[in-house]
Specification:
The chain is an all-alpha fold. The chain has a single domain, classed as Up-down Bundle (Growth Hormone, Chain: A). 84% of the residues lie in helices and 0% in strands. It is built from 17 helices and no strands. Helix 10 runs antiparallel to helix 15. It starts with a helix and ends with a helix.
């Protein structure tokens, strides 16, 4: 591998590390901050934390279009990453529900570009070099895990530290974004015609539902896991430790995901990941002890550590190459946006009316439906393969 390409790999890994460190500094502890420091109720917290994902649904395709139009995804990533970090200070500067709501909207507008644009660059780069995408993406999990662990400890002294960490991390990530490989996220702007073609693909549409049902609750868990640990008697440090164990467990699974995919296939790996999520949510619903929560946090690696690379690669496999960037944008909008919003918003209503344990029962129901859909997709693929074999035999 050439020296330039190794440098590009390091730049991509560094960007994921810093950007996810920023996200991990803020969101896992934001719900606890709004509850304990700002004294907001469950409905208000759920609304504030769910507005971001719904904003992303509309702005992620827009940033994808801008990236394709300008052929400058790295410039788009630099600009949006920095402004997202600046916007996060709104939580620190203001003290009312309405202003927190506006801050959440502002941050989401710019943050919505980070994942789909960086993923599109990484996928195209890793595909061109035949390099394992998981070895790049796992640095995001590393950054997130380190952030919640460190911020959990520092928040014991001053909860406001999460906003400064968010700003500094994303500012550094924005500098690094400009050094990323100059991979175009697509050809010319074809997102609308691309959408029309994509939604004719039955597999693509069904897998969007799978992502909504399985990945959405996993992202919403970043909002409610802190409240869950807090309800069980954990401290800020305890929340950080629990998140650290959970997120760091993703790393080894992302490293071996490629081998698992080659052996079992993309959809079976996604089904395994969804099943593990289902078991996890049911376990949390049963109100386990805090020590068991810490001990079992590693199962997150089975779910997200496998689903993230398998899901992205499945999208790339089933969509034509000229609209892969559009497919990734829509996939990200459904999982990071719509699924996250729905799970977070409804979770807030359940938390306010019942308890944090009821939230995880709701997540379990969604995961169960997602697993059923994945199994149905596997069955359809096997049937199609059998038909093709019969046709070739004839």
């Amino acid at each position: 591998m050439e020296r330039k390409e190794r440098r590009n790999i390091f730049s991509l890994q560094g960007f994921y590390l810093l950007s996810f460190f920023g996200v991990g500094s803020l969101y896992p502890l934001l719900s606890v901050y709004l509850s304990e420091v700002e004294k907001l109720n469950g409905y208000q917290i759920g609304t504030i934390l769910s507005i971001g994902p719904i904003v992303m649904i509309f702005f992620q395709p827009l940033w994808g279009m801008i990236s394709d139009l300008t052929h400058s995804p790295t410039k788009v990533l630099t600009f949006t990453t920095f402004l997202a970090g600046v916007g996060g200070f709104g939580y620190y500067l203001f003290g009312s529900y309405s202003m927190f709501f506006l801050t959440a909207v502002l941050v989401a507008i710019f943050q919505s570009a980070i994942i789909p644009v960086s993923d599109s660059i990484s996928l195209k780069f890793s595909s061109r070099l035949n390099y394992n995408y998981g070895n790049i993406r796992l640095f995001g999990s590393l950054g997130f895990g380190l952030a919640v662990f460190i911020m959990g400890k520092l928040s014991e002294f001053s909860p406001a530290v999460i906003f400064f960490s968010f700003f500094v991390s994303l500012s550094l990530a924005s500098i690094l974004a400009f050094r990323l490989p100059k991979e175009h996220t697509g050809e010319n702007v074809k997102i609308f015609s691309g959408m029309k073609d994509l939604f004719k693909l039955k597999k693509f549409v069904i897998f969007l539902f799978v992502t909504f049902l399985i990945f959405g609750p996993n992202l919403a868990n970043n909002t409610y896991f802190g409240l869950f640990v807090d309800d069980l008697g954990g401290t800020y440090t305890g929340i950080g430790i629990a998140f650290f164990i959970a997120v760091m467990s993703e790393i080894p699974f992302m490293r071996v995901a490629g081998r698992g995919i080659n052996k079992f296939g993309l959809l079976p790996i996604a089904a395994i990941a969804g099943t593990v999520s289902l078991v996890r949510w049911l376990f949390y619903f049963m109100e386990p002890s805090l020590s068991l929560v810490y001990a079992s946090a590693v199962i997150q690696g089975f779910s997200l550590g496998l689903f993230i690379p398998a899901g992205l690669q499945y999208i790339r496999e089933i969509t034509p190459s000229h609209i892969t960037a559009t497919a990734v944008t829509i996939y990200s909008a459904i999982g990071n946006g719509l699924g996250n919003w729905f799970s977070t918003f409804v979770g807030g209503l359940i938390y306010d009316s019942y308890s944090i344990f009821g939230v995880y029962l709701f997540f379990a129901v969604l995961a169960f439906l997602g697993v059923l859909l994945t199994l149905w997709l596997i069955k359809e693929e096997k049937s199609s393969m059998s038909i093709r074999k019969i046709a070739v035999g004839e």
